[in-house]
């Protein structure tokens, strides 16, 4: 049984949550507006922000 991911995820956990396999893709998402929480040099991604980012980038396929 797999442990549930924490709300404030490391980059590696966020990649798993978002279903991506490349750090380059994650960094691209961050450049495009995915919010990162940074406290004392430690970076985390909030699951709620990840969900909002994905919702905001939905497009209708043709």
């Amino acid at each position: 049984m797999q442990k549930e991911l924490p709300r404030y995820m490391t980059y590696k956990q966020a990649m798993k949550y978002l279903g991506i396999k490349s750090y380059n893709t994650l960094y691209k998402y961050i450049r495009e507006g995915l919010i990162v929480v940074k406290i004392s040099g430690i970076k985390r991604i909030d699951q709620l922000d990840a969900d909002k980012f994905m919702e905001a980038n939905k497009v209708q396929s043709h």
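The two ends are 38 Å apart (CA to CA). The helical segments are 11-18, 23-31, 47-56.
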